[in-house]
Amino acid sequence: MAMSGRSLATAACAVLVVVSAQVPAASAEPSPCTAAGRVGPYLVLFDRNTPQYVAASQVANACGTMTGYYPQIAVGVAKGDPGFARRFGEDRAFGTPPAATAPRPKVRSTDPADVPGVDRTAEEWDLDAVGARHGTGSPAVVVGVLDSGIDPAHPELARAVARKDSAGCLTGVPDSGWAPTTSPHGTHVAGIIAAARDGQGTTGVAPGVRVASIKVIDDAGRVTPEAVVCGLVWAAEHHLPITNSSFSVEGVSCTQSSPVVREALARAVDYSSAAGTLNIAAATNDGVNLTRWSACAALPAGLRDVIAVSAVGRDGVKAGYSSYGLGVVDLAAPGGDGNDCVLSTVPGGYASLCGTSMAAPHVSGVAALLASEHPDYRAPQLRRALETSARPIPCPADYDLNGDGLQDAFCAGYTGYNGFYGHGLVTAP
C-alpha cells in the first residue's frame, strides 16, 4: 500500500475498521448488561470472513463495544462490562492481564550522557561475532521494530526512522503515538539494526536500512496481545519485509493458557507471512526449554513461521538466561552475558544491555542486508538464506555455568541443528 501523501490516520483506516457499535436499546425483556463501566480491552475472535457489521453486532449483543476490527484475520478489540467474556464466549474472548511483559534485558551500564561524537565501534564485539563490520543496507528496506518506540532525534537513527511506516499500537488500534516516552528498549534494539556508520557512536548491523517504530511495549514493559496483532497487521499492510519482536507476550503460560491469544497471534503471523514479511523474535530470557512448553509459552517466538533467536555471550556459548529448545530455536546471535553486554543507542546516548532482546535484532539486521542485496527475496528466501549461511555450533560437551558440578541445561540435536543454537550463529553476507 502506497503511503506517500497520506496521513497516519488515513493509513490506519486501511489496516483495520474502527467501529463504534453501541449496546442496543433495552427491549421489553430484562437486559443482561450491568451498569458497571466498560472494562478491557478484550481480544476477540470471529469465524474467518466475518463482516465488520456482523462482528460488531455479536460484540454488542454481549454487552460490549468494539473499538477496532481486523477483517483480514477476523480478530477484534473490544470493551465490555465485567461479564462480557462469559457472554461472548470465553473460548473467543481474552481480557489482557497486567502480567504481560517484555523480556527484561540484563543491564550492565547505562551512559545517556555520552557525547554521540565519540567513536565507540571498537566496543561492539557483537559486530565481529556476526561478521557485520562492513555491510551496508539499502534505504528501500524497512524493518518494522515492534517495541517501545524509537527515538527519532538520536543522531545515529535520525535518518533511519521511517515515520510514515510507524504507528503506535498500545490500544490495539494504530495511532500516531509511536515515539518512546520513558523506555529506552526500542531505541536500543533499533540501533543494533540500523545505527549509522558515521564514525561516531555505534554502528548497526545494517547501516543504511530504515526502521519503522511500531510501538507495542509500554513504559512498564507490558506487551498485550492486541498490541502485537495490531503491529503485525500494520507491518504486513505496509509491506515491510522484516519485523523484529524483542518481547514475549507473557501472562499466557502453561498455568494460565489462552488458546484465544495463540490463535489471534497465529492468524496475524500467518497473514503477515503470506504478505511477504519475515517475522523474527526473541526466544525469551526465562532460561527454559521451549520444546517442553512451546504449546503455551514464548509468543510470538514459538509460532510457526517466526524465526526464534537464542542469545550467546562473547564466548559463543548460549547465555544462561536464554531460553532454548530443539525445533523452536532457529538461530543464535549475540545477546551478551555477564560483563559483556551489547552496546547500542538509547535516547540521549548509549547503553550496554544483555538479553535475547539484543540477539534478535542482529538476525533482523542480517536479514535486512540480505534483502538489500536481493530485493526480489520474499520471506521464505530470506529465511533460507539466513539458515544456510549461519555458522553451525555444536552442543557444548559441558554446560555447567556456575561450577556446581551440575548441567544447567541439556542441548539436544547435532552440530548442524540443535536446541541451543538452531542452525547456528547468524552470519552477515
Structure keywords:
single chain; 429 residues; alpha/beta; 7-stranded parallel beta sheet; 4-stranded antiparallel beta sheet; 19% strand
Low-pLDDT residue intervals, each spanning 5 or more residues: 1-31, 106-113
Strand arrangement within the widest β-sheet reads 7-8-6-9-10-11-12
Rg over alpha carbons: 21 Å
- DSSP strand count: 16
Shape: globular
Bin the helical content: 10-25%
β-strand percent reads 15-25%
Helix run count:
10
Order of helices and strands: HEHEEHEEHEEHEHEHEHEEEEHHEE
Distance between the termini: 29 Å
Structural class: alpha/beta
Name the average pLDDT. 88
Largest sheet: 7 strands, parallel
In brief:
The chain is built from 10 helices and 16 strands.
